[in-house]
Amino acid sequence: MQFIDSTNFERLLKKLSGEGELFVPVTEEDTGKLHIERVEAFPLPEGMSVEGFRTVETLKGFAQLLRSTVAEYPSEELDELEIGENIPSYIVVCARACDVAAMELVDKVQVEGEFEDPFYRIRREKMFLIAADCTDCGDSCFCNLVGRNPWPEKGYDLAISKVDAGYLVETGSERGEKLVSENADLFTVPRDGQEKTRDDARMKVVAKLKENNKDFPDATKMTEPLREALTDGLWNDESAKCVECGACTNICPTCYCFLLYDTVEGDKFRRVMSWDSCQVTGYARMAGMGNPRPRLGDRVKHRFYHKYDYLPISHGEIFCTGCGRCIDTCSAGIDMRAVFKNVMSKAAK
Amino acid sequence: MKNPYYPIDTVVEDVITETPTIKTFVLKPVRPIQFKAGQFMQLTVPGVGEAPFTPSSDPSITERMEITILKTGKVTDALHELGPGAKVGLRGPFGKGYPLDKLVGKDVLVVGGGVGLAPMRALLYGLFADPSKYKKIVIKFGAREPAELSFRRQFDEWRALADNISLQTTIDVPHPDWTGHVGLVTTVLETEHLEGIDIVDSYALSCGPEIMLKFVTLKLLEIGYKPPQIYLSMNRKMSCGMGKCGRCNVGHYYLCVDGPDMCYDKIKHVPNVFG
């Protein structure tokens, strides 16, 4: 573990910005919310904040673009890909534990296994992650209910924890170690007591999370109750207010489903990949109008089952990191934690 | 690096009209494509999009591929407008394919309905490569009316291939030109039509519309098949073919990687499995 003071941290970021595009969290004046913004020039933007909790935006949009061209055909190069050079390296500062963990989950789908998505993999390789402890939590944050902590444990290059007038720094990858060793003059040995200061701060956030979520059930134990609560009645009730906007899936850091469609570009054709949402009617509709999930209740149910039942079977983990963005964004006020409470009471009957 | 989303350049060599709404497209990709019976391809109509189809041709032929297609949506409407020389694209193959190894030494019951006969023909070519490896091959094909039975020009030829092959066709409602069996395909799954199949030592494979699959499954269970002996070509929207885009799930399975032919035993617990 190392210590870096705030001035040297800015120097480090400046140095890093020479190797790729730099993104930091900046506080939005009106709302106090953090947004990921690109640093065009130094000094760092005034509103940049290492403190707080997750940004409004997730990390997934860096690796899986909202919309991107995945093929142009017919092509003289046939089907050989040469996309690597065109994608710049980038550094994301203050990624929170829920978002770092979410990327590791999506990696399981997009990179691991029989097929890999080369576009996703390359964008992921170009990502340098400086993760940070949450120093607070939002009303909708519930990482404690999915068995996670508000500080990053793996999946990052560097991780920083605010103490005194600087940060404790841990490395989590070879790239991170290299960066620290090449810039050894910026770091010092942590002083006695700094680690305890960090741990105390962490425990304060955990205590607040526990207090905020004390009325809700442990989401890691939802798979069985979900299976017992298969009844349509429950899901029709839960979906009654849903307006089918798809915001919950778009803002979710682990929702990775996409749509492929083709367009005409002069005498060439373009294949486009775009984010999609299982909450909209046409998502799984087939030619001939067959639809395995014709009712909204079926689709709302599917979102919960995909994250808490199907993906745990195929990939061994719940695909929810408790970031709570789906709660913040839902115009109908659907709260995943409250749904689980209802599922539990239904399953108990 | 290969781009898994790029469609391999392919030319339509011939178009065979099977029924008023079904055509078989003979396709020649720029390079041979190896596939197993039951695996599927994503067929691109340039600028229109892709749709998934299981080839209906002999898997041992890799230079050309035949795909038999019902006109039923955006991509298939555009396909049906195409003639010889048209340029299309292919990605794949995807999915697991039929469990041919499991069928060796068994009685094999093949039940197809409507355009569901198309993937079944690739299965039959696989079985016909050496019919002696199986005990009986009992084929039941159904369609709404005689003109909607695809591949009927080949039926007598198939029946003559080996003594252990039988093929019975049925149409849903009586027709003046039809002297064969009349009734839904489930009616030819009654024991007296099954050529003495030893159900205990048999596998049944079926492909057709979802409603047909449902009633075929119920009938198979009624006559003594157990869920592990039943394979169904399931219908869901398959797009990426690699288990990533998310839409073709049946429970936790993705048909594009785990299917599209699924052992009924694996999916029987899924609510509304037949839609």
List keywords for this structure.
heterodimer, A: 349 residues, 2 domains, seven-stranded mixed beta sheet, B: 275 residues, alpha/beta, Elongation Factor Tu (Ef-tu), domain 3, Rossmann fold, 7 helices, 30% strand, globular
Structural description of this entry:
The complex is a heterodimer of chains A (349) and B (275). Chain A has helices at residues 6-17, 60-63, 97-110, 118-125, 174-182, 194-212, 223-228, 232-238, 247-251, 296-315, 325-329, 336-348; strands spanning 2-5, 21-27, 34-38, 67-73, 90-95, 127-132, 158-163, 166-171, 258-265, 268-275. Chain A is α/β, with parallel strands linked by helices and 349 residues long. Chain A has 2 domains: 2-64 and 82-212, no CATH class; 219-254 and 288-348, Orthogonal Bundle (Fumarate Reductase Iron-sulfur Protein, Chain B, domain 2). In chain A, helix 8 crosses helix 10 (296-315). The radius of gyration of chain A is 22 Å and the shape is globular. The model of chain A has no long low-confidence stretch (mean pLDDT 93). With 275 residues, chain B is α/β, with parallel strands linked by helices. Chain B folds into 2 domains: 8-94, Elongation Factor Tu (Ef-tu), domain 3 (Beta Barrel), CATH 2.40.30.10; 100-233, Nucleotide-binding domain of ferredoxin-NADP reductase (FNR) module (Rossmann fold), CATH 3.40.50.80. Chain B has helices spanning 74-80, 100-103, 117-128, 155-159, 210-222, 255-258, 264-267; strands at residues 8-17, 22-29, 40-45, 49-53, 65-70, 87-94, 107-113, 137-143, 165-171, 181-182, 202-207, 230-233, 249-250, 253-254, 261-263. A 7-stranded mixed beta sheet of chain B has the order 10-9-8-7-11-12-15, sandwiched between helices. A 6-stranded antiparallel beta sheet of chain B has the order 4-3-6-1-2-5. Chain B has a two-stranded antiparallel sheet with strand order 13-14. In chain B, helix 5 (210-222) links the parallel strand 11 and strand 12 (230-233). The longest helix of chain B is centred in the last third of the chain and has 13 residues, at 210-222. The radius of gyration of chain B is 18 Å and the shape is globular. The interface between A and B is large, with 48 and 45 residues.
